[in-house]
Write a structure and sequence with these properties.
The protein is of the alpha/beta class. It has a single domain (about 5-295), classed as Aldolase class I (TIM Barrel). It has helices at about 25-35, 55-70, 85-100, 115-130, 140, 150-155, 170-180, 195-200, 215-225, 230-245, 250-260, 280-295, and strands at about 5-10, 40-45, 75-80, 100-105, 135, 160-165, 185-190, 205. It has an eight-stranded parallel β-sheet with strand order 1-8-7-6-5-4-3-2. Strand 6, helix 7 and strand 7 (about 185-190) form a beta-alpha-beta unit. Helix 4 packs parallel to helix 6. The longest helix is centred in the C-terminal third of the chain and has 16 residues, at about 280-295. The protein is globular and about 50 Å long. Keywords: Lyase. One of its GO terms (molecular function) is 4-hydroxy-tetrahydrodipicolinate synthase activity. This is 4-hydroxy-tetrahydrodipicolinate synthase. It holds the Pfam family DHDPS.
């Protein structure tokens, strides 16, 4: 399936039962809510998806179930976060076999690769598959920055097509657009820079709080792309305290609590993660409760793609 690399793409959470198995019933409930809101793809196996705790069999099930649920309406993308080039190539091959439409890729994990090693890693995986690829550029959390010069080399690979821009430097979107134009699609990966990034020309938004608030997230994107900036801004100002739950070491627990509040998730996480406790739990619940009390009525606006 062709991927346009635009619109809102949820990095969905993985749902677990109290017995620590996949909760596929609640997972489907959430995916259906995303589809109804008008998202443009589903991304599996990111940080929010607790990918590092999933077995290969669980990843297979999640890809296959998501492909079944979306039924060809939108692409299914799987994140690759591996320690070795061999492991990343194997993961890409499995993703294709199980029905994924595209890949999101982090640089090598644990080992701090230099620029040449990082570029070689991405290119070797790109050579091994015909799936389209979005590079996940998050030096803040993962310690390796993919620079514009590195992207110049990477774009010699036709299936490297997009970047999840998470440098936290809003000007980087302009730098990318100035240098590459439409050769490299840009999707913001930082919820608290969501609207700002769209206004600076980002093609899409890989979102986190969308897991709990899909309609609001899609509304901000669609209104902004339609030039209805004051309406988008009003929703975004309401949303910001909730969006700040995404830039936190406990973002998975935070967002799962928000999913409970909106009825499309559970609080279950997989150890070593544990549900929030004490004062931090009270703080997060207060933010969510305030957001639910003041949840805005959304204006009419069809989900927009660029």
């Amino acid at each position: 399936m062709h991927i346009k690399w635009e619109g809102v793409m949820p990095a969905v959470t993985t749902k677990f039962t109290k017995e620590d198995t996949l909760d596929l019933e609640m997972f489907e409930t959430n995916i259906q809510a995303q589809l109804e809101a008008g998202v443009s793809a589903i991304i599996l196996g990111g940080t929010l998806g607790e990918a590092s705790t999933l077995t290969d069999e669980e990843k297979k099930i999640l890809i296959q179930e998501t492909v079944r649920i979306v039924s060809g309406k939108i692409p299914v993308i799987i994140n690759i976060a591996e320690q070795t080039t061999k492991g990343a190539i194997e993961a890409a091959n499995k993703a294709k076999k199980y029905g994924a439409s595209g890949l999101m890729m982090l640089p090598p994990m644990r080992y701090k690769a230099n620029d040449f090693e990082t570029v070689t890693y991405f290119k070797e995986v790109a050579k091994s598959t015909d799936l389209p690829i979005m590079i996940y550029n998050n030096p803040v959390d993962y310690g390796i920055e993919v620079t514009l010069d590195m992207f110049e080399e990477l774009l010699t690979m036709p299936n490297i097509q997009a970047v999840k821009e998470s440098t936290r430097d809003i000007s980087n979107i302009t730098r990318i657009k100035n240098r590459f134009g439409d050769r490299l699609k840009v999707l913001t990966g930082v919820d608290t820079l969501g609207l700002e990034s769209i206004l600076m020309g980002a093609d899409g938004w890989v979102a986190g709080l969308v897991c709990a608030f899909p309609k609001e997230t899609v509304a901000i994107y669609s209104l902004a792309k339609a030039g209805r900036i004051p309406e988008a801004l009003a929703i975004y100002r309401w949303f910001l305290p909730l969006l700040e739950l995404d830039i936190n070491p406990q973002l998975v627990q935070n967002i799962k609590l928000a999913e409970v509040a909106t009825g499309i998730g559970t609080e279950q996480v997989r150890a070593p993660r544990l549900p929030l406790q004490g004062d931090e739990r009270k703080r997060v619940l207060k933010i969510i409760e305030e957001g639910m009390k003041t949840r805005p009525t959304l204006p009419e606006c069809k989900p927009a793609l660029v």
